[in-house]
């Protein structure tokens, strides 16, 4: 792509995202909803002004990494410690109920197949796609409403992070059963090793940055160090441990969340995120949508896929939260907050297509799930919080 084409692409994305965000807020909907709709309007779905390419995808990935870094910086560690085990249980329910639901949906339509058959693995893989939670949209919505630091907000955030880790481990087990070259044990070990090393390196990094911050408070070198740590952790997580880069960036934020200038770092990072990268991430979701190749059978499956994927998250996470003594209103908030799907679902789908487990027609169902969940979750959360606000 020529440089001038990139400039035109950025101008259209940023201006359309801002315009639709303002319109969405006028309609009492979160701004991220407008940005996703902007992607639908300017993308292949309607006007076809912009087609998604590697440049947009890479910029969008930086956007979600920065969103998760900010979420880590805004994390209340006391609340996280308080909800850590609870979040683990909610995440487990939020993985295994959709996994079962997706598998049963596929087999109900295509016929129940014996263990080990291709049809059985296809059904199991459809369930794997449903396990992933994309926390970026939920985080942005909760932050916009001022509820991210609340007990429910921190529970959703913690559970979503753990959810992706468990989902990746489950995916590896499924691929391991299909392809002997994948070792579930090694991937599980890598994940635990990454978390263990993050604690050790994080402790050292925190104290080093704390000393620098005390000596040079409110100077530009502090957010630069923080941003560098964010990208390093994201890179190490995915490159060497096979964990989603957003998990690494979130942990980088947690490492720095207790230093004096955590809010200052967050404010400086958010300038780039808000102006460029985050709008590209949200608009990019809409850009990936193209409804021109849908046949009636796939449309029927896609509708059922979306319904099952969204309801199983509410059922799994909501019921587990109720078992853990949350109020019903908070259970529904947690279930709804865990419904969004995004980049991880796309990565899992792409992996299945590359290995020949599923064909490209299922990509439509995943995109439809991402679009519907991404638009509906912010609206539902806003309605829930307006009716059942968190206590002060």
Describe this structure in words.
The chain is mainly α and 392 residues long. Helix content is 79%, strand content 0%.
What is the element layout, followed by pairings?
Blueprint: H1 3-26, H2 31-42, H3 54-73, H4 77-110, H5 118-131, H6 135-145, H7 151-178, H8 184-215, H9 221-241, H10 245-256, H11 262-287, H12 296-323, H13 328-337, H14 343-354, H15 362-387
Helix pairs in contact: 1-2, 1-11, 2-11, 2-15, 3-6, 3-10, 3-11, 4-5, 4-7, 4-12, 5-7, 5-14, 6-7, 6-15, 7-8, 7-13, 8-9, 8-10, 9-10, 9-11, 12-13, 12-15, 13-15, 14-15
Main sheet attributes: strand count, strand direction, barrel closure:
none
Taking all Cα atoms into account, the compactness measure Rg is: 20 Å
* Unreliable sequence segments: none
Number-wise, the strands total 0
C-alpha termini separation: 51 Å
Shape: globular
The secondary-structure element order is HHHHHHHHHHHHHHH
Q: In what range is the share of β-strand residues? A: under 5%
Sheet/helix structural class: mainly alpha
- Multimerization status: single chain
* Helical residues, percent: over 70%
**Mean residue pLDDT:** 84
């Amino acid at each position: 792509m020529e440089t001038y084409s990139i400039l035109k692409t950025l101008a259209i994305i940023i201006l359309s995202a801002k315009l639709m965000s303002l319109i969405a807020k006028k309609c009492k909907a979160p701004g991220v909803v407008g940005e996703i709709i902007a992607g639908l309007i300017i993308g292949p779905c309607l006007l076809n002004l912009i087609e998604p390419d590697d440049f947009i995808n890479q910029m969008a990935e930086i956007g979600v990494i920065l969103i998760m870094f900010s979420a880590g910086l805004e994390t209340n560690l006391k609340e996280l410690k308080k909800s850590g085990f609870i979040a683990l249980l909610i995440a487990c329910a939020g993985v295994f109920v959709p996994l079962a639901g997706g598998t049963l949906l596929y087999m109900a339509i295509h016929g129940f197949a014996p263990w080990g058959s291709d049809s059985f693995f296809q059904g199991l893989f459809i369930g794997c796609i449903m396990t992933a939670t994309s926390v970026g949209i939920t985080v942005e919505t909760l932050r916009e409403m001022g509820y991210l630091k609340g007990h429910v907000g921190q529970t959703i955030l913690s559970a979503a992070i753990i959810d992706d880790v468990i989902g990746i481990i489950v995916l590896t087990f499924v691929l391991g059963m299909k392809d002997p070259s994948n070792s579930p044990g090694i991937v599980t070990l890598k994940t635990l090793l990454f978390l263990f090393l993050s604690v050790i390196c994080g402790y050292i990094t925190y104290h080093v940055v704390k000393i620098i911050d005390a000596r040079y408070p409110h100077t530009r070198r502090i957010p630069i160090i923080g941003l560098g740590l964010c990208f390093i952790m994201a890179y190490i997580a995915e490159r060497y441990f096979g964990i989603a880069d957003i998990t690494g960036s979130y942990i980088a934020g947690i490492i720095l969340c207790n230093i004096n200038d955590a809010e200052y770092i967050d404010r400086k990072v958010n300038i780039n995120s808000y102006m460029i990268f985050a709008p590209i991430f949200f608009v990019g979701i809409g850009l990936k949508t193209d409804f021109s190749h849908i046949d009636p059978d796939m449309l029927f499956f896609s509708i059922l896929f979306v319904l099952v994927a969204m309801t199983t998250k509410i059922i799994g996470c909501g019921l587990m939260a109720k078992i853990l003594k949350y109020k019903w209103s908070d259970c529904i908030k947690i279930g709804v907050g865990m419904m969004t799907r995004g980049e991880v679902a796309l990565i899992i789908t792409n992996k299945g297509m590359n290995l020949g487990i599923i064909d490209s027609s299922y990509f439509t169902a995943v995109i439809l799930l991402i679009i519907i969940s991404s638009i509906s979750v912010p609206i539902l959360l806003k309605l829930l919080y307006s009716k059942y606000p968190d206590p002060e």
